[in-house]
Amino acid sequence: MSILNFKTKKQNGHKLSMLTCYDFWSAQLLNDTNVDALLVGDSLAMVMHGHNSTIPADCELMALHIQSVKKGAPKKFVVGDMPFLSNRKDLKTNMDNVETIMRAGAEAIKIEGALGNLELIQHCVNSGVPVMGHLGLTPQFVHQLGGFKVQGKEKDKAELIYNQALMMQESGCFSLVLECVPTQLAERITKDLAIPTIGIGAGPHTDGQILVLQDMLGMNTEFKPKFVRQFIQGHEIIKKACNEYVEAVESGDFPNINESYEV
Ligand code: KIV
Questions:
Q1: pTM, whole model, 2 decimals?
Q2: Helix, strand, coil in percent for the chain, rounding step 5
Q3: CATH class assigned to 3-232
Q4: Nearest CA to ligand 1 atom 4
Q5: Confidence of residue 222 (pLDDT cuts 50, 70, 90)
Q6: What DSSP state is assigned to residue 33?
Q7: For a Cys staple, 208 with which of 22, 48, 124, 198, CB 3.0–4.6 Å?
Q8: What is the structure's pLDDT at 22?
C-alpha cells in the first residue's frame, strides 16, 4: 500500500479500511489482516495512557509508539499524527517535528484543520512527506469546540468544513479524515474531492472508514458512541480467559506436565 493505492482505490470505487494501532503486539496482529493502513493516532493519549483528551500527546510519545507499530507491522502503510501544537509554530520547528514523526517510521503524517496549516502542508508535500488531512471533530480543538461533539450540523459550519476540505486537497493532501460530521456533508465532500475521504462517524458514503482498534474490539464497556460497531465483545472474552487462567492456577491444573520442564 502507498499513497498511490489510496488514489486508485477511490478511482475504482473500492473502499479503504483503516484502524488505529499504537503498540507492537497489536501491530503484529494487524500486519496479518487485510486492513489497508494503520494510524498511530494521538488518541493513544486517551486509549493507552488514560488521559481525557489527546492534548497530552507530544512528538516524543508519538515517535515511541510509531517505532513499535512499524516494527510490528512492516507490511502496513503507517500514518502518524502530528500531536497538539506540534504543527503550529514556526516552519522550522514544525518541520523538525514532522521529521521526528517520519524518522520514527511513519510513511505519512496527519494534520488536524486546514486554517493556518496550508503552508506547512505544501512544504511537507514538496519535501516528500505525504499529508493526510483531518476535519470535522478535530479532537485537538476540544476546548475550542466545547467538547467532543458532531460538527457541521449548521449551514455556515458545514460550509467552513467543506471549504477547508477543498483547501487541504489544493495544498496537496493525499486523503482526508472526516470525523463526526453529518452523512450528507461527508457525501458532498467525498463527491467533490478527487482525494479519498476516510470517515469516522461520518456515515456510509465516504471512500473509506477508520475506527479505533480498541473500540471495534469492544475493549471499553463504558465508551460506545453511536458510530462505533463492536465486532467482538473483547472485554468480556479477555476477562473470561484471564479468570479461567486464575482458576487453573488456583486449582493446580496449570501448569500440567506438558507445560513443565523435566531434568
Ligand atoms: O487520533 C486518532 O485516533 C484519530 C482517528 C480517530 C481518526 O485521529
A1: 0.97
A2: 45, 15, 40
A3: alpha beta
A4: 41
A5: confident
A6: S
A7: 198
A8: 98
